[in-house]
Amino acid sequence: xxxxxxxxxxxxxxxxxxxxxxxxxxxxxxxxxxxxxxxxxxxxxxxxxxxxxxxxxxxxxxxxxxxxxxxxxxxxxxxxxxxxxxxxxxxxxxxxxxxxxxxxxxxxxxxxxxxxxxxxxxxxxxxxxxxxxxxx
Amino acid sequence: xxxxxxxxxxxxxxxxxxxxxxxxxxxxxxxxxxxxxxxxxxxxxxxxxxxxxxxxxxxxxxxxxxxxxxxxxxxxxxxxxxxxxxxxxxxxxxxxxxxxxxxxxxxxxxxxxxxxxxxxxxxxxxxxxxxxxxxxxxxxxxxxxxxxxxxxxxxxxxxxxxxxxxxxxxxxxxxxxxxxxxxxxxxxxxxxxxxxxxxxxxxxxxxxxxxxxxxxxxxxxxxxxxxxxxxxxxxxxxxxxxxxxxxxxxxxxxxxxxxxxx
Lengths: 136, 262
Ligand code: HEM
Ligand code: SF4
Ligand code: SF4
Ligand code: FES
Hints:
By secondary structure, chain A is mainly alpha-helical. Chain A has helices at 23-50, 61-68, 71-99, 103-130.
């Protein structure tokens, strides 16, 4: 065989032994369950914010302060924040696994993803719990 | 380009060399060609050839190879949809060239017909329509596609009820043609995904009442590159020339893992 005939085999994977971990199973299940919860949480959120009496035009500082004075809406927003962030983050993890060709690319993309998830989760949670309605 | 390519471009000439029986029409066969000895990347080459509506696409390829360009490379063996050698992308869909009839591809009356033929995607192209199947078979072997049993050999045959047999009947029909795996968008993006064909062949044994290796295979398919990579897009089911309900089989494996019950 000549040199030119030896094509590289980008798709000959080295298969490691099965890890006997249920992580992918649980993450698959989580996507479906959190998706179901998000249908209610996100659509409800959009409905309240954009459609019900006056929609976006009535949203101001006082409106947000009013809503967050109720533990119910605090809990709603907190749940939506965490579920959407973990759901979207896990979805992006899947997409990175799909498209990253090199292990190093995959590693750094995931570090960036996880870091951004932590920042948003911490910041969002902090705001929901420490929001000060008297600041204005 | 080489001198052969110059001859090939003159397609009007070449068609006349292929016998044109009564009732045949001229169709253009557009083939993705790649010769690793001269080409740096694949290119398209068109051939105007006579075709009977009852011809299979494989007949056209054999005629082109026999009368026009002997260097055209593709696999085929049985020519009857049994061996699984001639999977290729025909008009954008993964099909066996020996099972696709020209009459199903003809354009509306009076309009010229073009049939595009490309290698299946996601496996390295070696030459023209012929790909390296090794990564595909590696995934197949990795799921242990053979009967596993422990303890003493039985002294009689292993009896099975029709109902027990029915559970995996569909997946016994696989001919390992790779139409499914190379139509899977997850496999295109991530070549280490086991792919539908390997899962189909694992299903064949996981749900066989005589087999005792279900747990080993389920462990393998529960891992990062296993069934959870599947996004349920049904490309594989559409592609399977044996009509196997591929996505359903994958779903049954997922269910067995979820509920820890085969
Ligand atoms: C409205 C309710 C929602 C439902 C019912 C839902 C459902 C799902 C399901 C079932 C999957 C898994 C698909 C698969 O594995 O084949 C998924 C994937 C995904 N979701 Fe959601 N989701 C919802 C909202 C969201 C939101 C708000 C975001 C963004 C924050 C999001 C981002 C993603 C991403 C990035 C993926 C991965 C896509 C992929 O696998 O290619 N989803 N979603
Ligand atoms: S159903 Fe799953 S295995 Fe089949 S083509 Fe879609 S992603 Fe691939
Ligand atoms: S499941 Fe169907 S498409 Fe896939 S390899 Fe087997 S016969 Fe071919
Ligand atoms: S040549 Fe055997 S399946 Fe087509």
